[in-house]
Description:
Layout: H1 2-16, E1 33-36, H2 37-42, H3 49-59, H4 63-71, H5 80-93, H6 95-104, H7 109-125, E2 134-138, E3 148-149, E4 154-157, H8 172-175, H9 180-183, H10 191-203, H11 213-230, H12 236-240, H13 244-252, H14 254-263, H15 272-279, H16 296-311, H17 317-322, H18 325-332
Helix pairs in contact: 7-10, 10-11, 11-15, 11-16, 11-18, 16-18
Amino acid sequence: MRRICFFLFIIFMASCHSPAKGPDVSGIQVPLSTDRFEKDFFSLDTNHLMPQLEKLVARYPSFGENFLGTILNADPRWGGDTTELYIRGFISSYRSVYDSASRVFKDFSPYEQEIKKALQHVKYYFPSYPIPKKIITYIGPIDGYGDILSEDALIVGLHQHLGENFSLYRSEWVSQTYPDYLTRRFTPATITINAMKNILGDLFPEMEDDKSLVLQMIEKGKRLYILGKLLPDAEEHNLIGYTKKQLKECYEHEPQIWDLFLQNNLLRTIDNNLVKNYIGESPKTQELGDASPGNIGSFAGWQIVKKYMDKNPGLKLPDLMKTDDEQIFQQSKYKP
Length: 336
């Protein structure tokens, strides 16, 4: 019995001294609150819709107008009766979506805390970035907008986080915009990931350019690397949008993935169609088989950046984004 107790004590002590994921950000102050716009919207009395809608928009001065005009596509040139009929129709047809979201997100506080921790990491790595102080949740057309970053808030489209098995995701009208390989990411687990992707896009806007494939792969890899730093507790496969199995097999076949680019002389191509084929969203990588994921170039770029950062552990994340992509490629000496 004494040996067993000693063994358990060793395990306990080892767990106490195991390195934490990421820096300690607990002391960084990030004020954050959540407004449930969808609750207010679907609580409107449709028999007296327009006066109540005006009051609701006034309570959400920036988001309310964008919700009506951009998300719902209510044309401001319509007459009042037409707008009222249109919005009443949306409330009626999306009542079941709202009911589902009310069950899944009855308590949104765990997601608020998750986002808050991610924002603490943003403030740690990018102290001058103005952190959003508010989360606004809403429900819009499933085949429309999802998560958005506004000037003053993180906007979360709950209709795109109801779980990959939510029945409407498999409907024809949704799959025309969001096929299965995208709707399987429509889960609660991607709320914070999408929020941080939007912040990264704000910190470092992506530019259309004519860089070679390998340099664009590294640009994607930089963003995935930083995303992992902002979300040190997130499962890695969710960061890139793969299943666990897909990411596991990517690591198992990392040399073959790299050979795909080497043997086909793809690294220096600037053909935009080829570039998009390897760093854009797609259900699979044709040359690697039906079970392979798309966006395989971003995976490879991610591994190159990891290799480079292993050799430059003191490099700060803002400086990583400024580092020349060719320099990263050459100095990483990546060879899986």
